[in-house]
Every structure is written in structure tokens, then in C-alpha cells.
Predict the structure.
Amino acid sequence: MKEEVNAQVSESEQKGVTAAVPVITEESGKLGELESALGESRKSLEEKTGECDRLKSALDDAVSAYRRLAVSTSPLYSDDIISGRSIEEIDASIKKVNGLVKKMRSSLEAELKELTVPAGAPERSAPDTSGLSPREKIKQGLEKK
């Protein structure tokens, strides 16, 4: 009896193994396809990462060139005043400098207006005799003739 049970179990196991072989083979094929797809994805990721690094480097070069160009276009700008790691930051820095220059210019112009001296000699006028006595006025008038 034990042998019959063992034979039946053995026969059932063999049927199960036989039935599982195609499933395992199919799953192994799918696993291979997935591993291949993963390898391709990794390769594509490496290529994209390299391309991204190249683009970042090119952007940094372009921003540096833009900054050098901005500094060279005006004597108002210098390397220590114009700053920024992007074109937008450099433009903001330029606007800030231009605003500061405009304020300083208007302040200096207002100060200059207060200090202006009329050009040429002062107007000729008769000497002020309002503080003189009548005798002194007559004496002064006779001396002029």
C-alpha cells in the first residue's frame, strides 16, 4: 500500500513537473527579454546623462560668454559688480547697476545745479550809496568828474 501511494505521488509529481516545464521555459524567456530591455534602458540612461552633462557645460560656457560681453559693453560694469550663474541673474544684476547709476547721476546733477555760477562778469551797477551821508555822496560825485 505504501508503494502504491508512493507511486501515485511520484506519478502526480512527474505530471506537475512536466506541466511546469513549459511555464518555466516561457517565464525564463520573459526574464531574458526583461533583462535585455533593462540593459538597453541603462545604456540609454548613460547616453542621456552624458548628453545632459554636455548641455550643462555648453550652457555654463554660454552664460560666461554673455557675462564677459555684458561687462565689455559698458565702462559702468565690472567683473565684481555683474554677477550671476544664469542669463536671468546677469540681466537682473545689470538692471540693478543701471538703477544705481541712474540714482547717482540724478543726485550729482541736482548737486551740480546748486553749485552753478553764472558765466561772465557780474552786471555793472552804481555803487550802493544808501549808507552814505549827503556830504559823502556829494564828495563822491565830485571825485568822479
User: Anything to note?
Assistant: Residues 71 and 77 are 5 Å apart (CA to CA).
